[in-house]
Amino acid sequence: MRRIGLTAAGLLVLVTASLALVANGRARPNLAHTCSSTDRQFIDTARTNMTALGLWAEQYEHGEAGAEDVVGQARSAAKIVRGMGPTDSSLQQTRRLLIGMLTEYARAVQIQDHHGNAGPHMYRAYGLANYAHTVLARSRAPLFKLGCDVGPLL
Asked: What tens digit of pLDDT does each residue of 24-36 get?
């Protein structure tokens, strides 16, 4: 019980000291944002992976690729996007949405391949894709002013 009290007291001191620094003006948040190299890398990587997945999906629709190929590509793309670290908040949100979309799409293709009802997963995948598009469309102009062109993702 004493350990919990000491931990809580330590946290209280840390929070109080942080607030005092902010109030005195010694600690100021960095409000200036630029398009970082990780932001540009995220945009390029997401574009490349979405293009590749689109090609695999097209081949799957024409019977030129198997479901396991498309599922593998979608999971690989989700893993790659998950490893990215954009600094811009709208790109961070887009990253989370893309991971969800890719995961749901992989599930849908896998279920369809096993003759199940892929509809709910595909519906979620399209919903997440549409929401990601909305986030990017709204942030396109402000990001462009900072040096990030999200046009290739739209």
From this structure: 444 444 445 678 9
Measured CA to CA, the distance from residue 28 to residue 21 in angstroms comes to: 9
Contact 60, 112 (CB under 8 A): no
Residue type, 79: K
DSSP 83: T
Residues 34-60: tens digit of each pLDDT:
789 999 999 999 999 999 999 999 999
CB 128 within 8 A of CB 90: no
Exposed e or buried b per residue across 94-103, where buried means at least 16 C-beta atoms within 10 angstroms of its C-beta: bbebbbbbbb
Beta-carbon count within 10 A of 114 CB: 9
Phi, psi of 51 (to 5 degrees): -65, -45
Contact of 153 with 41, CB cutoff 8 Å: no
Q: How far apart are the first and last CA of the chain?
A: 54
Report the largest interatomic distance among the alpha carbons of the chain, rounded to a whole angstrom: 67
